[in-house]
């Protein structure tokens, strides 16, 4: 495997671990897809978690503006999926710290724990396992900025944007592989539904 694995190597790793599956899936938000990805199924294996996190950290180091900030860089992730990636990236970079935002339930906004907030001007790299709808990363970016810190980039293992996923530019968006989930906005526009193929409901 290359120092920064190719897209094909990443996809092969995800398939081996059952993290990437083909079929007919329905997400809680009504989207239908021909692929389902749960990066956590790959991250449960130490060696795979190390491979993906170190590779992502190398992309961060290759970005000169972010690399210059690493000694004081904070790695911030949405709980819980982003945490293994965030800790792996922080360890590989030897960045300053890791912390995260969480929500009480799926309908509650993200928030930081009591007594945990950014310093004014603090440089923050947002990290997650996947960027699909971008909902959590959007909330996290806005939360960090509202507290007076500066988001300097976003790094995710997989970029698999759903329809209407936000454009985070001009922030740098770093990822190991971009995948097409084969999304349809709903059952009515889904070719697999029209063909009568049953679907499996999945969690996000």
Q: Write the CATH fold name.
A: Rossmann fold
Spatially, the strands of the biggest sheet line up as 5-4-3-6-7-8
The largest sheet is: 6 strands, mixed
The CATH architecture: 3-Layer(aba) Sandwich
Describe what this molecule looks like in 3D.
It contains 7 helices and 9 strands, in the order αββαααβαβββαββαβ. It has 204 residues and is of the alpha/beta class. The strands form 2 sheets. It has a 6-stranded mixed beta sheet with strand order 5-4-3-6-7-8, sandwiched between helices. Strand 1 and strand 2 form a beta hairpin. The model has no long low-confidence stretch (mean pLDDT 94).
How is this structure best summarized?
The protein has helices spanning 7-16, 40-43, 46-61, 64-67, 83-93, 135-146, 191-194, and strands at 20-26, 32-37, 74-78, 97-102, 111-112, 123-131, 150-159, 173-178, 200-201.
What descriptors fit this protein?
Rossmann fold, 9 strands, globular, single chain
Secondary-structure blueprint:
Blueprint lengths: L6 H10 L3 E7 L5 E6 L2 H4 L2 H16 L2 H4 L6 E5 L4 H11 L3 E6 L8 E2 L10 E9 L3 H12 L3 E10 L13 E6 L12 H4 L5 E2 L3
Parallel strand pairs: 1-9, 3-4, 3-6, 6-7, 7-8
Antiparallel strand pairs: 1-2, 4-5
Helix pairs in contact: 3-5
């Amino acid at each position: 495997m290359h120092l920064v694995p190719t897209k094909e190597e990443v996809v092969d790793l995800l398939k081996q671990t059952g993290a990437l599956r083909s079929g007919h899936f329905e997400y809680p938000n009504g989207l239908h897809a021909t692929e389902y990805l749960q990066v956590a199924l790959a991250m449960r294996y130490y060696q795979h978690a190390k491979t993906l996190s170190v590779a992502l950290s190398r992309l961060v180091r290759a970005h000169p503006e972010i690399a210059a900030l690493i000694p004081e860089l904070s790695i911030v992730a949405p709980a819980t999926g982003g945490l293994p990636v965030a800790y792996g990236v922080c360890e590989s970079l030897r960045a300053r710290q890791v912390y995260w935002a969480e929500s009480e339930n799926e309908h509650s906004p993200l928030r930081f724990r009591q007594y945990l907030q950014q310093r004014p001007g603090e440089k923050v790299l947002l990290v997650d396992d996947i960027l699909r709808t971008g909902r959590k990363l959007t909330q996290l970016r806005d939360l960090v900025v509202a507290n007076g810190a500066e988001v300097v980039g976003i790094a995710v293992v997989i970029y698999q944007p759903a329809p209407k996923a936000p454009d985070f530019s001009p922030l740098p968006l770093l990822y190991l592989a971009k995948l097409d989930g084969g999304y349809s906005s709903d059952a009515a526009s889904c070719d697999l539904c029209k063909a009568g193929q049953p679907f499996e409901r999945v969690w996000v």
